[in-house]
Amino acid sequence: MDPGFIFVTLNWLTLLKSLDMGANILLENTILIISMIIGIVFLFALLIYQLRQSEKKKKELEAKFKELEAKLNNIQLETIEAKLNPHLFKNILNSIQAHAYQTYFAIDKLANVLDYILYDSHKKYVTPKEEIEFAINLIEINKIKLSPLFELKTKVKIHEDEPLYTQNVLAPLISIELIENAFKHADLQSPDAFISVSFSFKDSIFSLTVANKISSKTPMKKEHSGIGIQSMEQRLKIIYGENYKLEKFIEESCYIAHLKINLLEHKAKMLAIR
């Protein structure tokens, strides 16, 4: 056989073997890369799944937390309101009993107040119109404790054509604490003493401003003397959240409290979470 032919044949065989080895290496590398890609995709998919599960659990926990928070708020409101009616009723009876000679006049006002307490105060909401009428009757009952010369000013500025004025959007009895606080702590003996109560309803905002000259005498503290301003603020915070503002300050021996509730924003918030 020709040596040249043998040499060429060997070279071809070597080349074919090299190509075959290269193909095997390329195949192995391709398989390795594909395996790595599959592994990365699997890990990525696993991470997404775990993330979604985590988000799902987070939402479930948030939902449970909100549910528990709502139940707690309801329990707090029930506790506060359970104290509210007896507290108010006792104060009204004390006012009438202390001034029996004016009882006939007070009976009519008392009947209206009792109707409100018995039939409306257990509702979650009443109309601003109903609450203001109740508060005015309450002022008239407290008025019998005052001297005829005492300056008691009541001002009502209402836009009655506004829709929310006659809709159930206002928490019942929300005005009593500020009014009773004024009668309790006002200076009733000084010649320049006064109590001023102003109601306003404009642009779906309920406003109540109560002012009184502060008595120089420290009022006697009684055991179980009422639920107080603190409980009122609790109710406001639970019911209205960020849609209310309560300011209290002293200016030139006068105590002033101003409550403002944006009922339109509150109603929009309530509708949004239904």
Give the tags.
five-stranded mixed β-sheet; about 270 residues; alpha+beta; Heat Shock Protein 90
The total count of helices amounts to 6
Distance between the amino and carboxyl termini? 98 Å
Radius of gyration: 38 Å
- What is the class in the CATH system? Alpha Beta
* Global morphology: elongated
Class inferred from helices and paired strands? alpha+beta
Number of domains: 1
What is the strand tally?
5
- What's the CATH H-level superfamily name? Histidine kinase-like ATPase, C-terminal domain
Main sheet: strand order: 1-2-3-5-4
Q: Can you name the CATH architecture?
A: 2-Layer Sandwich
Describe what is shown at a glance.
The chain has 274 residues and is α+β, with helices and mostly antiparallel strands. It has helices spanning 3-98, 103-120, 128-143, 176-185, 228-240, 263-272; strands at residues 151-158, 194-202, 205-213, 244-251, 254-262. It is elongated, with a radius of gyration of 38 Å.
